[in-house]
Amino acid sequence: MGKYYLFKKNTLYGEGVCQDGMEQAQAYDGLSVGIGDPPAGMKYPAPPEPTYQSQRVQEYPSLASQMDMIWHAMNDGTCEKIEPFYTAILQVKQKYPKD
Questions:
Q1: What is the domain count for the chain?
Q2: What is the mean pLDDT of residues 66-82?
Q3: How far apart, in Å, are the Cα atoms of 3 and each of 12, 26, 37, 39, 42?
Q4: What is the sign of the dihedral through the CA atoms of 41, 44, 45 and 51?
Q5: Domain that holds residue 14
Q6: Whole-model pTM?
Q7: Distances in whole angstroms, Cα of residue 41 to Cα of each of 13, 16, 17, 37, 47
Q8: How does pLDDT run across 9-64, given as a tens digit for each residue?
Q9: Is residue 49 included in any domain, yes or no?
Q10: Is 55 part of a structural domain of the chain?
Q11: Measuring CA to CA, which residue among 55, 50, 6, 51 is closest to residue 26?
Q12: Residue 53 lies in a domain
């Protein structure tokens, strides 16, 4: 088995091992293929700075937790009950009560 790497100019985009008999490789998306180990100075690109959207997605509670927060706020009177949402959840909670 031989090694290969994908690159563009001096930037490394991937590495792998060829299966036996697959010594020829084909690049994609404008990348070139090198056979063997990449040159010592070739580096992967720096990861992009996170966007506010990606940071928020990581920090938000799960959708299930958000929905539970809304239901409990309706149940304790903190906010107005939204129907049929409230009643549908209440019926399930009554059918399968917490121990």
A1: 2
A2: 96
A3: 14, 13, 6, 13, 15
A4: negative
A5: 3-35
A6: 0.52
A7: 13, 18, 20, 11, 18
A8: 989 999 888 776 555 556 677 888 888 899 999 999 999 999 999 999 999 999 99
A9: no
A10: no
A11: 6
A12: no
